[in-house]
């Protein structure tokens, strides 16, 4: 079952979410050819210091096993879906696409958000992938209101991918968020409308569609973190932390 947050907690999550949005957009604005993904990580780290918030990803371990995540930012280029580890060797090139994923802790509460952008100018196909994945996040968020179910979000997201001829990365999903980075419930990006847990005021979830132009299957790189599409197709990722309110929803990580 999802954890219900108090009005005060949602207020603090919104405060943190606003800071996260500022930091994420500052990092996105620094994306250009010649910049390394480690430069972007350093920038995110400086911004977090400036705002007095803590990184949520650094030191994180999946299921409390495996290697600790060594950076504050996830920077996933082209066929990397998520969890790309920043590196000084990874210099961005014109025409690539990059997913930027950041989580912060503000007053002991977690928010999580991601967006994908082109390095310089992307191909028409990749521009469409970015646009459709962003629109799918919006379509998922539009389903967030009391009485609707997690499956309504999942179905709305999947429908966007299907209409555009893209595939949903099925093995990676959204999640509850707030007291921890990952909480119940799971928020999948495909499924049937009217299924899964019912949305209630006070629930806070991270909705995060990941689409690819190719096949949905993924594989991990040797670093234990980076997730790539198995067929090497480009992938895009957008994410917001969203609170369910009595009136509908509030996007906590909106700029
Ligand atoms: Mg994230
Ligand atoms: Mg997330």
UniProtKB/TrEMBL annotation:
Residues given in the record as a divalent metal cation 2 binding sites: 112, 175, 208, 239
Domain Peptidase M24, chain residue ranges per copy: 12-245
PANTHER family: METHIONINE AMINOPEPTIDASE
Organism annotation: Candidatus Doudnabacteria bacterium RIFCSPHIGHO2_01_FULL_46_14
Gene Ontology MF: a single term: metalloaminopeptidase activity
E.C. no: 3.4.11.18
Keywords: Aminopeptidase, Hydrolase, Metal-binding, Protease
Cofactor(s) for this UniProt protein: Co(2+); Zn(2+); Mn(2+); Fe(2+)
Function: Removes the N-terminal methionine from nascent proteins. The N-terminal methionine is often cleaved when the second residue in the primary sequence is small and uncharged (Met-Ala-, Cys, Gly, Pro, Ser, Thr, or Val). Requires deformylation of the N(alpha)-formylated initiator methionine before it can be hydrolyzed.
Keyword check for Protease: yes
Top-level taxon of the source organism: Bacteria
Family: Belongs to the peptidase M24A family. Methionine aminopeptidase type 1 subfamily.
Ligand binding (substrate): 83, 182
Annotated protein name in UniProt: Methionine aminopeptidase
